[in-house]
Amino acid sequence: MTKILAAIGRNALAALASFGRIGIFTFATLMHALGRPFYVREFGHALLTVGYFSLPVVGLTTIFTGGALALQIYAGGARFNAEAVVPQIVAIGMVRELGPVLVGLMIAARVTSSIAAEIATMKVTEQIDALVTLSTNPMKYLTVPRVLAALVVVPVLVGIGDVIGIMGGYLVATKTLGFNEAAYLQNTYDFLQSSDLVSSLVKGSVFGGIAAIMGCYYGMNSGRGAQGVGRATKGSVEAAAVLILAANFVLTGVFFSA
Amino acid sequence: MIRFDNIHKAFGDNKVLRGVNLHIPKGESMVIIGGSGTGKSVALKCVLGLVEPDAGTILVDGKDSRTNDRDAFLARFGMLFQGGALFDSLTVWQNVAFRLLRGSLKRPKEEARAIAIEKLRRVGLKADVADQFPAELSGGMQKRVGLARAIAAEPEIIFFDEPTTGLDPIMAGVINDLIREIVVEMGATAMTITHDMSSVRAIADKVAMLHDGVIQWTGPVSEMDASGDPYLDQFIHGRAEGPIEAVR
Q1: Is residue B220 part of a domain?
Q2: Which of A245, B2, B37, B192 has the greatest count of CB atoms below 10 A from its CB?
Q3: Is B195 part of any domain?
Q4: pTM, whole model, 2 decimals?
């Protein structure tokens, strides 16, 4: 029993220490973002890799989810004669929750892993040391552009994902469930409030920041060799996914608890 | 020019450096030899601030290497890394001109490119490799690009970390000759880490042997073979028997 408690205690302490290190890393990133130099080329490249090249996976994920949501709500609503609420629930479900969370998780899978693997490989092959000897701060050159790009571009992806998800529900509802096309769109438009959109975009920005910081943190702190790169990549995706879901819970509470 | 004064460094229980004392005069080429894991790279990285010593000081021109003005301090150095450490996402010329495209040594892009191509030519590469990516080059060519990057900003001090590792003997000889020529031509102070004895004889003015965390022997390369030091003798002749324990 004592051994079990000791193991739990050790793991809890290790987790708290990790949180502390991630907190310090995040603070250092923000501090570096405030000072010169700012690497515009790297920022532009990060905008493309985080944003533009993530569009296909975001689009496919949200369109299928929107369609499935419409089917579920229709089937569930039929139990108490509430099939008509499909447009409203698809809209609120996509914009408030599924859009930001799914995009966040897709970014964690696609971008966090890629950032962690790239930076970890740079560390293993001494490219990070080379940056230092070339008078370039790795935090400014590698971390800041990626984190700022994610903060800016992931809300845009979430907005696009919200629209595509709603359109997925629209297609299923109008083509297979017999909803009127104009009425569906009007109901969706009428039901959504500006606070829904704001919460969606804020969540997108926070999730993007989490995804990029986790990728950079695990990459910068990776172990040696191929195993070190693999562990960094796996750890970054796990941490980003869990933190995104935890942040979603907190933000939902902040926006909608009243 | 570079003075190690009682440098200690441990990683956990592993005491790698246990009081390194070494002086490298200006314009001299010092080669540090020693077995794998004896702390040669750690000593070099301590100078550049990539590793923080636990105790002791490193002076460069009489000034502590832990200076606040890192940019100006590092601008005096060039370094060739063991694996080249070229940036995969940049073309060859952008790698060579990295320092000339940003920071205190920034030049206009065309001028930086022209300097990069000139440095590539100096290390025996043609201008047509300038727009290729490092992954498209052979190991020997990557080493040359790394060398071109190390000398691009005309540094006063150049570090070479295992410059011939992974190269065939002929290419290793070419790289050794290039290093020697460039160091003499630039009048730079050089510090090389290697356990390749052909590199030692080609590059060194002086040799220092690191063993058990301290400098075991140091002296001119011409005196190395007749040093009478049993550790150095065993190392330079590659004997399994001797005071240095070989793990079998």
Answers
A1: no
A2: B192
A3: no
A4: 0.86
Q: Extract the tokens encoding A227.
A: 């195993």
Identify whether residues B77 and B53 lie together within a single domain: no
B136 to chain A, minimum CA–CA distance in Å?
A: 17
Residue B231 and residue B171 share a domain: no
Residue B194 located in a structural domain: no
Within this chain, do residues B111 and B167 fall inside the same structural domain, yes or no? yes
Q: Among B77, B86, B104, whose Cβ lies nearest the Cβ of A133?
A: B77
User: Helix-strand-coil percent breakdown of chain A, rounded to 5?
Assistant: 90, 0, 10
> Is residue B248 over pLDDT 60?
no
Per-residue pLDDT, B247: 56
HEC states along B30-70? EEEECCCCCCHHHHHHHHHCCCCCCEEEEEECCEECCCCCH
Low-confidence ranges of chain A (pLDDT < 70): 258
Higher local confidence (pLDDT), B104 or B31: B31
In angstroms, the separation between the Cα of residue B240 and the nearest Cα of chain A is 29
Q: Distance between CA A245 and CA A101 in Å, rounded?
A: 7
Chain B residues with beta carbon closer than 8 angstroms to that of A136: 98, 102-103
Write the single-letter amino acid at B157.
I
Q: What is the mean pLDDT of residues B159-183?
A: 85
Domain extent listing, chain A: 39-252
CB contacts of A132 in chain B (<8 Å) are 48-50, 74
Interchain contact, B75 vs A126, CB within 8 Å: no
Average pLDDT, chain B: 88
In a domain, B142, yes or no: yes
**Segment A109-168, tens digit of pLDDT:** 999 999 999 999 999 999 999 999 998 999 999 999 999 999 999 999 999 999 999 999
B113 with B73, same domain?
yes
Minimal CA separation from A129 to chain B, in Å: 7
Give the number of beta-carbon pairs within 8 Å between A and B: 51
The confidence score (pLDDT) of residue A163 equals 95
CB B182 within 8 A of CB B159: no
The interface pTM score, or ipTM, of the predicted complex is: 0.86
> Can you give the residue range of the structural domain that contains B103?
68-187
Angle between the N-to-C axes of helices A194-220 and A113-124, in degrees from 0 to 180, rounded to the nearest 10: 20
Claim to verify: residue B107 and residue B153 sit in the same structural domain = yes
